[in-house]
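Bug report

Summary: structure tokens for 3-dehydroshikimate dehydratase differ between web form and batch submission.
Environment: batch mode, default settings.
Steps: 1) Submit the sequence below via batch. 2) Compare with the web form result.

Sequence submitted:
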Amino acid sequence: MRKSIATVCLSGTLEEKLTAIAAAGFDGVEIFENDLLASPLSPERIRDRAAELGLTIDLFQPFRDAEAVPEDLLARTLRRAEKKFAVMERLGADLMLVCSSVSPAALDDDALAAEQLRLLAERAAAHGIRIAYEALAWGRHVNTYDHAWRIVRQADHPALGICLDSFHILSRGSDPKGIEEIPGEKIFFLQLADAPLMAMDVLQWSRHYRCFPGQGGLDVAGLLEHVLRTGYDGPLSLEVFNDVFRQGDTARTAVDALRSLIALEEAAGRTDLPAPVVPTGFAFAELASTGPELPALLTELGFARTGRHHSKPVELWEQGDARIVLNSGLDATTGHPEPALAAIGLETPDPAASAGRARALLAPVLPRHRAVADAPLDAVAAPDSTELFFCRTEHPDHPSWTGDFTPRAASASPAGITHIDHVALTQPRHHFDEASLFYRAVLGLRPHESLELADPYGLLRSRAVSGADGSVRLALNVAQIRPGSGPSGSLWQHIALHSRDIVATARRLRERGASLLPIPDNYYDGLEARHELDPGLHRTLRELGLLYDRDDSGTFLHLYTAVVGRVFFEIVQRIDGYQGYGAANAPVRLAAQHARTR
């Protein structure tokens, strides 16, 4: 289906928005009137520029407070409309959005509303223009789509139809199934937006917190299915009011927007996208390593240096199925002047299919400079610039990336670590919603509830995404903290390693003098009050600096290393099916880390 987007979704000037919208691959655009009013370009020049970019102007919006007005205001309303029709003719737009009235002067009279909308449609038709009437969720008298449709049907004019907006419908809890009773030809336009579920005034919710489909908690895909069953064949168009999007990079937001529509079409069964290939585990985590600190820490954790890349300054460290790659070739010239997480290798049963889906969903494909003998590895960039590699490790039917490493004799004292449990990725504030959609759509991971966690200097927002079986877990974090409170003014990244027996692991690490994060005694006093723990377990937790959490399924024990550069390790044990990430302990961990890095 054709795809369109309202200019209000993006930052920048109108010309910048049009350029970004076209470059992303959209077919059309809604011109938001404020963007037109602020532009130095004439309507004719905007029309020509859109045509040069291959964009149709699908809608001009909004026209407000048009229906059920007292007689003394009607002439003023029609005069205002005629002025807008003249602008639309110059702009080359033939569809105008009319929002249900919010004016205190509006009358609660459906017959009068229908009569005046019919009159407006007659005036519009004389200019070759149609009217799409939309029920605002906060409309004074008309605030549901079925009410708006009754008025349109009563007006009975060929140039008058309805505009459906997913936010206005779903935010009120209206049942979208009734949409199927509207003839498809009378649905003149469809606007789509998602939003996080929030208990707040619907107007403020709408104006500041909408997001692209798949980034919030509304069933936009279900609504779209109802609309398509009517025979609607117009564009899928995004209308999103979001403070973050209107401050973000214009081109990047446009790409994120189109990705959301592609994924939405798939959810509604209207696209031939390559099927998602959900990763089955972590092949490796790659760290930029600029000094001796990370090798020393890995040694303390029981990892062995098992190989060196045959053509690059890269080392492979292993313990069980946990593999860490240290790359000393990543320095200030490549954006990693200090130890940091640079890449993740994801196990997948079909790396080519994983890469194909990523490309279809507009993920930036990264060029690979490899020697002839190097294993082929497809990589894409995640929203935070972390590189994601699609791997099939040591499988007889696929070249393994481990073959690029020359084995070396390993001497280490393992600490009971078995595999990578999860990885926490720091997201730039403007890319948090983009990341949530990216991992769901591109990798087929399931997003979990978004949490806000207390940091000593503000709030940390976190959202986990995972495979259905938990073999791949990612925690997406964005810091709402003052600059300078963390390294490089941002939040740390970390790799969580699973232990089969974390008590034994903790004892070994302490015997070796490993650099572990100290936990205040006050935490254990509070833990004793909060949970009725076995006294022996409580003493062990306090003695070893272990943290404790519990959910409906099981329990979670974990500890942390000190921060090295921008990265640290967490050691975890999940007991009896625990599914969380120890979020209740995050404030204690963050406070301890800030205290150690001041």
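Above is the batch result. After comparison, the two runs are identical; trailing whitespace caused the diff. The chain is about 30% helix and 25% strand. Confidence is low (pLDDT under 50) at residues 483-490.
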